[in-house]
């Protein structure tokens, strides 16, 4: 029997699971750390904008026997910047080099004419403006802004505003990380990068929406029961959709990885690399944020609601009383996850749980009590546990 | 197994065969259409296929010394960009070069001539009142006939007069006669000019008629001052049949001064005008679109003005409607040429319509130029040359290889994880690929859609995104199987929930695409188009292909019976009863469902 198959079943059932919501502070911390790194990287190193954004120089040569790829090598050597080479109808070449000013263009012109074996006077040098002027880039930003507003409205209607807000935060988180990676690695930002970044918009939200959809379904009528708090339901939703999230992410990342490592790897820097890198980082960040950031955030927001607070109190009270009666009615997912993951020193996981909410601080003791009830019995097998009943 | 008790909703209501037939017919039709149209590969963008490169040089106009500055150049670039990418998917590139050049790169396969016309039409747009039109007196019908002599046969002149009545402004169908005769007249005279190349006689005729109209005009040209005299002389000397001379005479007109201009009437014959100062200019036009006027069966251009523009427009039309012909006309002047000179009968305000003998294409071109505004500078075409692809075939090849490898990896993963179910996923991916490819190919000639490298990458990424929908559906089905249902009810129960999830998430993707398409221009817009298209196709494929196929296969013994390799084996999925027997349960069977 494949492990994977039964793993899915157990996750679905809540028999096993990871306490995403309970340990949210850790993941928030990690995300904040990454985000700060990204912002610092962006502020210190800035983005390496391509010719499309900042312009450069264009050299037009007369007819030459040098091939375009060879000329590209020469031009990149001579300038130290990326070059784009096109053959013209006349047999000459048009060589575009980014990030070149007038002084530099004269030097490059001299070098080029030497290497291409044409007269320096015949090489025509011109500075070009950005083809992706500020206006186009600004419009992409404007589109991003409008999209965010609309999507928040839509998610607020389809789900609720807390989920919409959490999804937005997760989305901004993904975009920041992706841009930060670009700043840190120093890859050139081209229109391809921007396009890759914009693809993340839809994709990052797709994953989040799948989890939210499940959460919405599972939390329906949540106030009518006293078994689980909202956070626990949220955690079960994440675990229940975990296989789906992993599968969708793997399946989306495989072609992108193909582009990045095969397409880009063989050819070196190029449009393929630009797009696939931003997609790769963005998709990974999107999958991460939908699981570790978006849903825990929703749980955080939700538990501020009076009725959720009341529910939590009721659940904890019931747990405390049933613990006293000797009936374990614990948050199942939590028990099992801990049982699987740590056979010793499990108590600290509940300490992580504790600082979650102000209310939780009061309830934390009883949570521990409730779980303590089950935990030792789990370890000490056959100590009159329900499992024993079944035998 | 606990299955039978819950097998309530059977798949009787769904008709999987019908949906499958529908999508197969669509695929066959699209593929057939693709071969019939003769385009079997998508049109490639300039980065992959090369194209035409046009260099435009800004003309420095006398009297406007500092007009060629970076601000104006950048404005011009963004306007040209919008024009050549009018439909948003043709992927042309526009950038400045040096201080006074603009390079426009148009991908191969675009109608390069039309694009050049659009780019070259520099569109300084003004609405000017007509002060004088050609010979400008209302006796001329007979003279038109006589001056037309042998060269003008009656038929075209009749045609011209009927068309002339079409070229009225607005929706006021009154008094077509004067404008008709006007247009006929205007047309006849230049013909005479052309015929004998002696403008003198007609010009003097024009001078005769000249004295009275300015007096009757409220416009600032007063009858006897030297400037008017100069203008008159210029008007007399103007010969619209000689393009360069005409261009010289009309060049450098300031919007605040009266000027002379040439135009073409509906029959494509030259006319000449004396025009008053610009009353409304291109910046005041808010939007313009070409529509087919159902009453006349001809193409017209509808314009909407901005707030300030409609005030100016209602003022000028208010004044003009009081005037006699020809001073009740206003000329729409594009780059010094009169495109249309409709007459006005009532005050118009917010909207205007331009009638003329437009074809669909010419009306669209004009609307395009009007709505995307006037260039701050005028340009002339410096060089036009073909360019090769900037990226070369190796990038495309690498992209396709990478895409193939990525696809293979996805398939391997799906097969390992989903076993038999992966057949459905692969078939659906295939259906999606066929639809995407044929539609993209057909959109090339259709709306100028060009596939550039980012779009190729987008399509490759779409493999994963499309597979997402199947995974959502499959996981739902497996969840239902875990609940203990047999496959047929499991599929039917899983579908409504999976459907909602798929629709909600696809809507988010589509929203992103739609917003980007509406707001941005150029490459981003082209990309947004690709994204929106693949998202829509994803929905189509899941609804019409994956779901029906799943329903049919659920009846199959291999899947329905939960064969070991079907990916739906209840035991493997850990449906409830078998799980009890599994070893793990000894440790912790606290599941409340069981308790």
From TrEMBL, chain A:
It comes from Streptomyces tsukubensis. The lineage of its organism: Bacteria, Bacillati, Actinomycetota, Actinomycetes, Kitasatosporales. Pfam families: Sec_GG, SecD_SecF_C. GO terms for molecular function: protein-transporting ATPase activity. The chain crosses the membrane at residues 26-44, 140-157, 164-187, 193-215, 250-271, 277-299. It is found in: Cell membrane. This is Protein-export membrane protein SecF. The keyword Transmembrane applies. It comes from the Bacteria. GO terms for cellular component: plasma membrane.
UniProtKB/TrEMBL annotation, chain B:
It is a multi-pass membrane protein. SUPFAM superfamilies: Multidrug efflux transporter AcrB transmembrane domain (SSF82866). Residues 381-554 form the Protein export membrane protein SecD/SecF C-terminal domain. Residues 149-164, 212-225 have a biased composition (Low complexity). Coiled coil: none annotated. Residues 73-130 form the Protein translocase subunit SecDF P1 domain. GO terms for molecular function: protein-transporting ATPase activity. Residues 135-225, 249-268, 569-595 are annotated as: Disordered. Keywords: Cell membrane, Membrane, Protein transport, Translocation, Transmembrane, Transmembrane helix, Transport. One of its GO terms (cellular component) is plasma membrane. Residues 269-376 form the SecDF P1 head subdomain domain. InterPro entries: SecD, SecD/SecF_arch_bac, SecD/SecF_CS, SecD_1st, SecD_SecF_C, SecD_SecF_C_bact, SecDF_P1_head. GO terms for biological process: intracellular protein transmembrane transport; protein targeting; protein transport by the Sec complex. Its main location: membrane. It is found in: Cell membrane. The chain crosses the membrane at residues 20-38, 396-416, 423-443, 449-474, 502-521, 527-546. It holds the Pfam family SecDF_P1_head. Gene3D superfamilies: 3.30.1360.200, 3.30.70.3220, Multidrug efflux transporter AcrB transmembrane domain. Part of the Sec protein translocase complex. Interacts with the SecYEG preprotein conducting channel. SecDF uses the proton motive force (PMF) to complete protein translocation after the ATP-dependent function of SecA. PANTHER family: PROTEIN TRANSLOCASE SUBUNIT SECD, PROTEIN-EXPORT MEMBRANE PROTEIN SEC. NCBIfam families: 2A0604s01, secD. Forms a complex with SecF. Part of the essential Sec protein translocation apparatus which comprises SecA, SecYEG and auxiliary proteins SecDF. Other proteins may also be involved. Belongs to the SecD/SecF family. SecD subfamily. This is Protein translocase subunit SecD. It comes from Streptomyces tsukubensis. The gene is secD.
């Amino acid at each position: 029997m494949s492990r994977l198959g039964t793993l899915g079943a157990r996750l679905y059932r809540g028999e096993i699971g990871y306490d995403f919501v309970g340990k949210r502070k850790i993941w928030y911390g990690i995300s904040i750390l990454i985000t700060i790194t990204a912002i610092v990287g962006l502020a210190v190193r800035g983005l390496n904008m391509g010719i499309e954004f900042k312009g450069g120089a264009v050299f037009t040569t007369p007819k030459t026997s040098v091939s375009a790829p060879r000329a590209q090598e020469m031009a990149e050597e001579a300038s130290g910047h990326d070059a784009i080479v096109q053959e013209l109808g006349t047999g000459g070449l048009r060589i575009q080099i980014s990030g070149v000013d007038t002084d530099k263009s004269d030097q490059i012109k001299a070098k080029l004419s030497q290497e291409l074996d044409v007269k320096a006077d015949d090489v025509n040098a011109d500075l070009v403006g950005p083809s992706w002027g500020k206006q186009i880039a600004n419009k992409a930003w404007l589109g991003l802004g409008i999209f965010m507003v609309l999507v928040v409205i839509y998610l607020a209607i389809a789900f609720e505003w807390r989920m919409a807000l959490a999804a937005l935060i997760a989305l901004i988180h993904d975009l920041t990380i992706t841009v930060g990676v670009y700043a840190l690695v120093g890859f050139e930002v081209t229109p391809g990068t921007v396009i890759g970044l914009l693809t993340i918009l839809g994709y990052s939200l797709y994953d989040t929406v799948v989890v939210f959809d499940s959460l919405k379904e599972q939390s329906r009528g949540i106030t009518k029961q006293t078994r689980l708090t909202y956070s626990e339901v949220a955690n079960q939703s994440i675990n229940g959709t975990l296989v789906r999230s992993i599968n969708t992410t793997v399946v989306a990342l495989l072609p992108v990885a193909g582009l990045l490592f095969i397409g880009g790897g063989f050819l070196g820097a190029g449009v393929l690399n630009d797009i696939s890198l931003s997609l790769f980082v963005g998709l990974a960040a999107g999958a991460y944020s939908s699981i570790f950031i978006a849903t825990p955030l929703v749980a955080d927001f939700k538990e501020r609601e009076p009725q959720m607070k009341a529910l939590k109190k009721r659940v904890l009270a019931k747990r405390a009383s049933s613990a006293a009666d000797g009936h374990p009615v614990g948050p199942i997912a939590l028990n099992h996850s801990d049982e699987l993951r740590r056979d010793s020193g499990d108590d600290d996981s509940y300490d992580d749980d504790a600082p979650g909410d102000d209310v939780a601080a009061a309830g934390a003791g009883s949570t521990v009590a409730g779980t303590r009830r089950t935990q030792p019995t789990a370890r000490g097998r056959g100590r009159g546990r329900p499992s024993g009943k079944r035998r | 197994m606990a299955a039978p008790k819950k097998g309530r909703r059977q798949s009787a209501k769904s008709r999987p065969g019908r949906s499958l037939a529908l999508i197969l017919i669509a695929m066959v039709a699209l593929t057939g259409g693709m071969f019939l149209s003769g385009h079997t590969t998508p049109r490639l963008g300039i980065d992959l296929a090369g194209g035409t490169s046009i260099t435009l040089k800004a003309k420095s106009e006398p009297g406007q010394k500092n007009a060629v500055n970076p601000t104006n150049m950048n404005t011009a670039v963004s306007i040209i960009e919008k024009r050549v990418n009018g439909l948003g998917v043709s992927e042309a590139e526009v950038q400045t070069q040096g201080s006074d050049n603009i390079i426009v790169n148009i991908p191969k396969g675009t109608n390069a001539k039309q694009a050049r016309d659009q780019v070259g039409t520099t569109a300084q747009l003004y609405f000017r009142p007509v002060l004088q039109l050609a010979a400008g007196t209302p006796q001329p019908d007979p003279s038109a006939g006589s001056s037309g002599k042998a060269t003008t046969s009656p038929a075209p002149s009749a045609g011209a007069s009927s068309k002339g009545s079409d070229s009225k402004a607005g929706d006021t169908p009154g008094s077509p006669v004067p404008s008709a005769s006007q247009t006929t007249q205007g047309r006849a005279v230049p013909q005479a000019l052309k015929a004998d190349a002696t403008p003198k006689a007609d010009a003097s005729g024009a001078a005769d008629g000249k004295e009275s109209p300015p007096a009757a005009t409220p416009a600032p040209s007063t009858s006897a001052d030297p400037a008017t005299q100069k203008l008159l002389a210029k008007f007399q000397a103007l010969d619209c049949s000689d393009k360069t001379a005409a261009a010289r005479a009309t060049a450098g007109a300031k919007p605040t001064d009266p000027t002379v201009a040439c135009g073409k009437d509906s029959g494509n014959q030259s006319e000449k005008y004396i025009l008053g100062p610009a009353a409304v200019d291109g910046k005041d036009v808010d939007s313009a679109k070409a529509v087919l006027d159902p009453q006349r069966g001809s193409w017209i251009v509808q314009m909407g003005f901005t707030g300030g523009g409609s005030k100016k427009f209602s003022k000028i039309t208010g004044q003009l409607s009081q005037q006699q012909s020809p001073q009740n006309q206003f000329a729409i002047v594009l780059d010094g040429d009169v495109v249309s000179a409709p007459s006005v009968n009532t005050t118009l305000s917010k909207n205007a319509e331009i009638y003329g003998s437009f074809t669909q294409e010419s009306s669209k071109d004009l609307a395009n130029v009007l709505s995307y505004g006037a260039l701050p500078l005028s340009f002339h075409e410096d060089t036009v040359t073909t360019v090769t692809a900037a990226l070369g075939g190796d990038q495309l090849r690498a992209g396709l290889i990478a895409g193939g490898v990525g696809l293979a990896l996805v398939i391997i993963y799906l097969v390992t994880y989903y076993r038999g179910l992966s057949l459905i996923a692969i078939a659906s991916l295939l259906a999606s690929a066929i639809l995407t490819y044929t539609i993209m190919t057909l959109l090339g000639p259709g709306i100028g859609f060009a596939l550039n490298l980012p779009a190729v990458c987008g399509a490759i990424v779409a493999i994963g995104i499309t597979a997402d929908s199947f995974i959502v559906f499959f996981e739902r089905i497996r969840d239902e199987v875990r609940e203990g249902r047999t496959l047929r009810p499991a599929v039917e129960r899983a579908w409504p929930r999976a459907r909602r999830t798929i629709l909600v998430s696809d809507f988010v993707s589509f929203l992103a695409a739609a917003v980007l398409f509406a707001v941005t221009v150029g490459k981003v817009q082209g990309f947004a188009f690709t994204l929106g298209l693949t998202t829509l196709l994803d929905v189509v494929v899941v609804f019409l292909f994956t779901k029906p196929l799943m329903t049919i296969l659920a009846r199959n013994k291999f899947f329905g019976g939960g064969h070991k390799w079907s990916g739906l084996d209840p035991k493997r999925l850990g449906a409830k009863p078998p799980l009890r027997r599994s070893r793990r349960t000894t440790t912790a069977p606290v599941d409340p469902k069981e308790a």
